[in-house]
Amino acid sequence: MGKVSKDKRDIFYRKAKEEGWRARSAFKLLQIDEKFHILDGVKRVVDLCAAPGSWSQVLSRKLYLGERIETLRLHNPLSSSCNKDDLASSNPEAAIPVAGNSNEKKFNEEVKIVAVDLQPMAPLPGVIQIQGDITKYSTAQEIIKHFEGLKAELVVCDGAPDVTGLHCMDVYIQSQLLLGALHIACNVLQKRGNFVAKIFRAKDNDILTNQLLMLFESVHVAKPTSSRNSSIEAFVVCQNYNPPEGFDPTCITPFLDVSNKNFSKLSGVNRIIIPFVVCGDVSAFDSDTTYPLQLEGEEKYQYREPVQPPIAPPYSLFMHKKLTTGKISQDDKSLENDLYHVADYKR
Ligand code: SAM
After folding, report:
1. Which range scores top for mean pLDDT: 68-77, 80-89, 302-311?
2. Closest residue (by CA) to atom 22 of ligand 1?
3. Beta-strand pair 127-131/112-117
4. Cα dihedral 83→91→22→67 (10° resolution)
5. Which residues does 158 contact at the CB level (< 8 Å), separation at least 6?
6. Which of 12, 21, 30, 49 to mutate to test ligand 1, by most ligand atoms within 8 A of the CB atom?
7. What is the reported pTM?
8. Of the given ranges (155-164, 188-197, 218-227), which has the lowest mean pLDDT?
9. How far does CA 43 lie from the centroid of its chain?
């Protein structure tokens, strides 16, 4: 009963099983491709965070096995705007992306698909697998090795951390995965290559997309209909890799062991130095030095209260309790909503 209810609640989950996809995510890549044609004529591709492998399946079937995968409209029987004539002519079985069933398999030996994940993945035709962490420089190097000097035309990344439920934390971890994926993309992509990666929608996404625009000629944020509205995921679709002349991708590698990197050798666009300037007289007072209370040549020292203490400091409740009862109980919430002026606690 439990199993059937998931099939009922999630049409893409059900259809993925019916069509032979390892995960419902396959439809996301197919729908992105339907809109942006990122798979057209592609021979070399990297699939980051690939397990259990439905995106790799799409790549394998479409590029390596040369299958035609149709993406037909989803006939939604629950939609009141559904046209009855359309219903008569549509084939509900073929309503969403369908994996073609060609008997004549055409293996395209020119196609190279490299898939990476922390988890092991069951094999797929034409897919080279690497088990590794995409935020590690060693993984980036291993991927590059597989391309034997050639560049990839496409890098995709559907990576997601185990969500904590703390939005800021999840967005941060996701952004580190994106940075890892972008670093790999910048190392393996050929000029005019494309990059697709999962992001979590957050208020700073505009900064992110503008930064990506410095490396790619066009950037879109796409939300496939197979991705639940309730999910904060979306995908950046970055087309036409065109970094600034002389760009060194290791510059965007936060996880690279910087102690091994000779920054003084960087030049051109990779060596933007922000001036670090000192303000004030360096021969006058120093903020890290302890000085005697009586300074030479100054009038006699006397203590003065701060000009304006904080008017509602976070420690006011504690101070009030301490002054009035002499003891603090963690369970006592009676004063929780009160804020006291700090002046009440003057010595
Ligand atoms: N695209 C996949 C598919 O179609 O089957 C689904 C990917 S799943 C949503 C997210 C994957 O990201 C998980 O398999 C997880 O192991 C992987 N992942 C998370 N962090 C990673 C990292 N640092 N390096 C490599 N893989 C990572």
Report:
1. 302-311
2. 133
3. parallel
4. -120
5. 25, 28, 29, 47, 48, 49, 50, 55, 197, 198
6. 49
7. 0.75
8. 155-164
9. 25
Torsion 247-251-257-260 (CA) sign: positive
Helix/strand/coil (H, E, C) string of the chain? CHHHHHHHHCHHHHHHHHHCCCCCCHHHHHHHHHHHCCCCCCCEEEEECCCCCHHHHHHHHHHHCCCCCECCCCCCCCCCCCCHHHHHHCCHHHCCCECCCCCCCCCCCCCEEEEEECCCCCCCCCEEEEECCCCCHHHHHHHHHHCCCCCEEEEEECCCCCCCCCHHHHHHHHHHHHHHHHHHHHHHEEEEEEEEEEEECCCCHHHHHHHHCCCEEEEEEECCCCCCCCCCEEEEEEEEECCCCCCCHHHHCCCCCHHHCCHHHCCHHHCCCCCCCCCCCCCCCCCCCCCCCCCCCCCCCCCCCCCCCCCCCCCHHHHHHHHHHCCCCCCCCCCCCCCCCHHHHCC
Q: Whose CA is nearest to atom 17 of ligand 1?
A: 49
Residue in 116, 117, 164 to alter for ligand 1 test, most ligand atoms within 8 A of Cβ: 117
| Weakest-pLDDT range from 18-27, 152-161, 310-319 | 310-319
Quote the pLDDT of residue 65.
Answer: 95
Q: What is the pLDDT of residues 274-317, one digit of tens each?
A: 888 989 998 999 999 999 999 999 999 999 998 998 888 888 88
ipTM: 0.99
d(CA 186, CA 244): 12
Distance of CA 213 to the CA centre of its chain: 16
194 in contact with ligand 1, CB cutoff 6 A = no
For ligand 1, the distance from its centroid to the CA atom of residue 180, given in whole angstroms, is 12
Contact present, 139 and 253 (Cβ < 8 Å): no
Q: Is the pLDDT of residue 99 over 50?
A: no
Question: Is residue 253 lining ligand 1, measured as CB closer than 6 Å?
Answer: no
